[in-house]
Structures are given as C-alpha cells and as structure tokens.
Amino acid sequence: MADTVAGLPVQHAEKSFYQQSTNKYSGILSWLLTTDHKRIGIMYLAAIGFFFFVGAVIGLLMRLELIAPGRQIMDAQTYNSFFTLHGVIMIFLFIIPGLPAIFGNFFLPIQIGARDVAFPRLNLLSWYIYMIGAALVLVSLFLPGGPIDTGWTFYIPYSVRSTTNVSMAIFAAFVLGFSSILTGINFVTTTHRLRAPGMSFFKMPLFVWATYATAWIQIIATPVIGITILLVIIERLFGVGIFDPALGGDPILFQHMFWIYSHPAVYIMILPAMGVVSEIIPTFARRTIFGYKAIAMSSLAIAFVGYLVWAHHMFTSGMSDTARWIFSLLTFIVALPSGVKIFNWVATMYKGSIDPQPPFLWVMNFIFLFSIGGLTGLVLGSLATNIHLHDTYFVVAHFHYVMFGGTGTIFFAAMHYWFPKMFGKMYNIKLARIAVLLFFVGFNLLYFPKFIMGYMGMPRRYYDYLPQFEALQEISTVGSWIVVGTLFFILGYLIHALLKGKKATSNPWGGVTLEWHIASPPSMENFAEIPTVTREPYDFSQLKEMKNE
Amino acid sequence: MSGKNKHHIDYGTYILVWLALLAFTTITVTVAGISLGRYTLFTALLIAAVKSALVINIFMHIRFDEPIFKAFLGISGMTLLIIFLLTFLDFIYR
C-alpha cells in the first residue's frame, strides 16, 4: 500500500527488506549472497561493530596496564602489540569503513531516491574483501613471530627489521584498501547516475555530499598506501633498499608515502561524520540548514585541501625547513572549511525549535569534543609547539578527541538517529540520554589528562612512566572504565530495543529527507515508484503535509 | 563509453602502443644505469608520465570518452601532480 505525501510516495504495509530477499535463498544464505544495499549495510554494521568492541577492550587492557608504574597485567612486548592492534583495528577495521560502509550503504541510495547502489554485486564483493582483510589481521596474530608490534603507522626502519608478523598484518591493510576503493567507486557512480528525477546536485542531502567527497578520497588516496605497503613487503622479503637507510633507502620517503594516504584518510573518517551532523541538526532544530552550499562546498574543499597537509605529521622527521613551513601554512588553511561547517551548524540552531533527542545530544557532544580536537590540532600544526609536543600524549589526546570524540561520537549519533529506520524499532530514549552523559564524562576523564601529561612530556607508546604521571594516569584509566561501560550499556539497550522495543513509526524525529518518506524498515527496493524531487532537502514546510503516525 | 566508439581503435594501434611501452621500459632501465645527476629522477618521471598517458588514452579509451570522465581523470592527475610538487619541496631542499 502506498500513499503520497508532499509529492512523494509513502509506504506502510509493504514487506520490509528483512522479509524479502534479492536471491532465491532464505536464512543466512539470503544474507551472505544478498545484493541489497541495506542488508550489506547491516552486515557491515555487525562486522565493524564487533571489531570496534575488540579494539575497545584492547584499549581498556592497555589503560589497565598503565594504572600504575611498572608491570601490572602484561609485559612490554605484549603492550607493544596491544597498542599496534588497537590502532590497526580501530583505524582500518572500524573508523575508516565505519560511517560510509554502514550508513553510506544504507542511506545514500535512499536519500537520492534510488533503489540500490550502481553496482550491487561489487558492493557485496567489497564486504567480502573487508572480511578477508579482517581475517588476515586475525591470522597474523597466531602465526609464528607473534602479533605485529610496530604501531599502526608501520614506520621504517623498525617495520622492516621487526621479527613479528608485519608482512601479514600490513598485507591485511592492503586488502582492506581494495574494499575501500570499490566502495568509493560505487558511491561516486551511484551519486552521478542514480539520482531521482529533480534531484540536482544542490538538492542532495548533505550526508550524500559528504559521502560523495569521501568516496573521491577513497579512490584517489587509497592506492598510495597500497603501493607503500607492497614496497615494505618487498623490502622485508627480498632486502631491496627502498626505505631502510641500512639498505640505501630513504625512511622519510616512507613517511611521505604513508601520510599521503593516511592524512586524507583522516578526512575519510571525519567527512561522513560531518555529513551526519548536517542531517541531524536541521531535523532537531526544525530549521533548514544555514549555508547549504557553503557546507556542501566545504566538504569538497576539505577533501581537496586534506591532500596537501600530510607532512605536518613529519615536522621532526628531518625533512627540509622549506617543506616544514609550507606544510604548516597549509595545515592552517584546512581549518577554514572545517570552521565553515561548525559556524553554519551553530547558525542553523540559532532561533531553531530545538528538540533535544538523543541523536541531537550526541551531536552536541561532537561539537564540543571535536572543537577541542580541532583547536589542539592547530597547536600541533605550529612548527615551534609541535617540536615540544611531537610523539607525546598530547598527540594521542588530540587524535582521540578528533577521531573518537568526532567520528566515534557521530557513529553513535547516526546509530541513534537512523536506528528506528534501519530496524523498525525504537530504543529507550531515557537510557539513551543517560548514555550521552556517561560517555561525555568518561571520555573527558579518559583523554583530557593526556593533554596535560603530553604537555608535561609523557611520550606516547611507553610501557612505563615516571611517578609524577601516576595520578593523571589513574584518572585516565578510570575514564576508560566509564567509556567501555557506556559502550556495553548502549549495546545492551539497543539489543533490547531490537528484541523487545516498540515499533518505530516511519518518521519518529520529523525529518524531511527521503528516508523519512518511506516505511521503517524500508522495503527491498526502497520506493514503490521512484520519486520526483521538487523541494529543497531541508524544507520543513512539508512536515505539515507529511503524515506522522 | 558510448557504443559507437567501442571499436574505434584497431588492433594495429594496440600493438604499436604495446611496443612503445616496452621501448619506454627499456629506456627507463637503461637510463637508471646512467648517471644523469639531478636529471635522473626527472627523466624517470617524464618517461612514466608518457607511458601513463598512452595507457590512459589508448588502452583505457579515455580519449574517446565523455568529458566528465576526462574531468575526473584531470582532477586525479592534478592531485597527483600537487603531491609530487609538495614532496619535492622536501626532497630538493633537504
């Protein structure tokens, strides 16, 4: 059954995508062989969510080790492997694929009025490649030599000389890169070819813009890390002198090539999150977004300028002074499009009719934490202060404020915003609000002391520390208990909602982008008929016409 | 690529390009053994650029494709060029 609201079809009684299969199979095979973008999104959610919890528990164990000076629960070599695995899992298995693969897959086609992505089979292949990459990481832990201990940056010359399973672990990152590239190709093609009639580029929701810009980074930047990884493997296996100075190689060249990918990768992580913010704020402020085109263009600007700042990770590496000041200058420029977004979001809320539901509270959390992360990034981007703070806990704190406080927080925001649409169930709003508060407290206890410790000179990745850091290390460890406890608390009430939650309406938040015009959960092909888009993406005047149950 | 351009390039051209690529590879290997000082890297990059142009235009048919694909490739190429330039700011002045 379909009726029409605001010129768009609304479906209520059609079978959901959980009840329909794209193939002849039922049960687990109907999922493993599916080409439905929503099912693939859910499969990514299960896999990525699992690895996120693994990474979080490893982080928790590291913090437990650091609760007091000296050995507590593990030896130094195990600690080295733990911080490497924490980084590899969180970066390559959670935060890079997280938002695009889960929410991009699920919502990008719906938000542009398409039935699926442009290449559905390639989409499924991307998931399998992701799983193969993840399996390789796991296999590398148990082979002779032991887990990789180089840190997630795989810096030369240690990564060539380490006797641990470096080759297998970095080959896993190489494989994961293919998944990322194929997803990027799929999203770019989908955005160009499958937009509904009437949906011009400047009528696309900002999450689509952000995912589109991200897809470009995935396509252009990821091959660089692939090549770099292959060169390291060749150097390890055949002793060819490419990066190791003992073999006549150039270790700074490795750092250049690593960061030529890995800095844009930071924007792969954060840009989709910014897109989610641009969806949530208008919905809960009941106002059209302020500066739509500026936000859309700032996504492209961040994607582009993000390519030009990589060497700010290398100010103390021994590269030329000329390169240092130029990269420092460029680093400050990338703050401009980020600032455009922050100010536009704040302006959107100004005089809005704010409804502080959990997704909105997560976004407020994000703006606070990400602003601290962004501003401390400027401290690190300045040449003089960078020399003092390089490779200290200050960097760790900055990175976690940006990535966990930024992308991680928005992962939860997106989860809470789109959960009713994805699963057709509503979670307990009161518990969700408590979770935001607990996370905020735990997060700041966990990471803010690291700014202070870093400023005082505590180096990152050290197994032991001087007694003067003990109090701050203890506070940080207590914070980790609260954060991980909150993660399990969130998991608990979301699973409860899945099993016993109330049925969600098709538009519980009063959103106006296309996903809120279809049933919760959507049908297999999303739309009974492809809609013709006539309105701006955040035109809330149509809410009056939309039939809220 | 549109259908009418599908068989625009004949096999003779493919073979010529293939031979050209082999020749350029030979030149690259030969040049690597000759000391050209500061021009060594420049020469290698120039040869690589010519080889890429041949592959992209002929084998990948971009030459006969829609302008949007040329634009996409142009943006990617420009990004790569900027990355090279910025890397050389370190390499040259180190």
What would your notes on this structure say?
The complex is a heterodimer of chains A (549) and B (94). Chain A is mostly helical and 549 residues long. Helix content of chain A is 65%, strand content 2%. Chain A has one domain: Up-down Bundle (Cytochrome C Oxidase, Chain A), CATH 1.20.210.10. In chain A, a hairpin with a 2-residue loop joins strand 1 and strand 2 (8-11). In chain A, helix 8 (206-238) runs parallel beside helix 10. Chain B starts with 10 loop residues before the first helix and ends with a helix. Chain B has helices spanning 11-32, 39-59, 67-93. In chain B, helix 1 (11-32) packs antiparallel against helix 2. Chain B is flat. Chain B has one domain (7-93). The chains are: A mainly alpha (549), B mainly alpha (94). The interface between A and B is medium-sized, with 18 and 13 residues.
Distance between the termini of chain B: 45 Å
Question: What would you call the structural class of chain A?
Answer: mainly alpha
Q: Spans of chain B with pLDDT under 50 lasting ≥5 residues? A: none
Write down the Rg of chain A. Answer: 23 Å
